[in-house]
Amino acid sequence: MSPVITNLLLKSLAETLYMLSVSAIIAALIGIPLGILLVVTEKHGILACPVLNKPLAFIINLIRSIPFIILMVAIIPFTRLVAGTSIGTTAAIVPLTIAAIPYTARMVETSIREIPFGLIEAAESMGASPLQIIWKVLIPEALPSIIESLTVVIVSLIGASAMAGTIGGGGLGDLAIRYGYQRFQADVMIATIIVLVIIVQLLQFIGSNLAKKADKR
């Protein structure tokens, strides 16, 4: 590859990592609490509130049912409102985050449900409040599984960020489309795929190790 293409590859890699990091952080900050709420507010939950649980579950399922490419186009007005533009790396973060939040919430919900109910009952019998149960039982016990779930979400975001390149979202997907596909430069396409594979492998390695360290059993 020419030095120009190499520089473009490095620039696109930086854009992809930027999109991933920002969208993953926001999705975790919002999605983890939502996932916990889905469990604790259900019927017979420690904070049972069907009035909140059912609409929340409906909204999460609604967003998850929309294919990402359609979601990107459908929320262009909202993206412009938030990012000031509908094109570029920063703009791509908006649909990426919106797509990742409900996915994260459902993954965290699954992680919380894996906790033996006996632990929660034991905490309640000792007089723990619902908030204490959440902070001292649910989150610590589910943490390894939550980390693994977030790893899956981030890996999924890599594919979504590449898809964002089809509408000028920047990053490796945009590079692959503009140079690898439209200009028939096979070396650019191959290099992009290799970089994406390396990123996925590194993320999976880091996530698996963090999950093992968080597992105190």
TrEMBL record:
Q: Which UniProt keywords apply?
A: Cell membrane, Membrane, Transmembrane, Transmembrane helix, Transport
Q: Which InterPro entries match?
A: AA_ABC_Transporter_Permease, MetI-like, MetI-like_sf
Span-the-membrane segments of this chain are: 17-40, 52-76, 82-103, 146-168, 188-211
What Gene3D superfamilies is this protein classified in? Answer: MetI-like
A biological process from GO: D-methionine transmembrane transport
Q: Which domain of life is it from?
A: Bacteria
Q: How does it sit in the membrane?
A: Multi-pass membrane protein
Q: Give an example GO cellular component term for this record.
A: plasma membrane
PROSITE patterns referenced in this protein's UniProt entry, alphabetically: ABC_TM1
**What is its subcellular localisation?**
Cell membrane
Chief subcellular location: membrane
Q: Where is the ABC transmembrane type-1 domain?
A: 13-207
What the record says about family reads: Belongs to the binding-protein-dependent transport system permease family. CysTW subfamily.
Query: What name does this protein carry?
Result: ABC transmembrane type-1 domain-containing protein
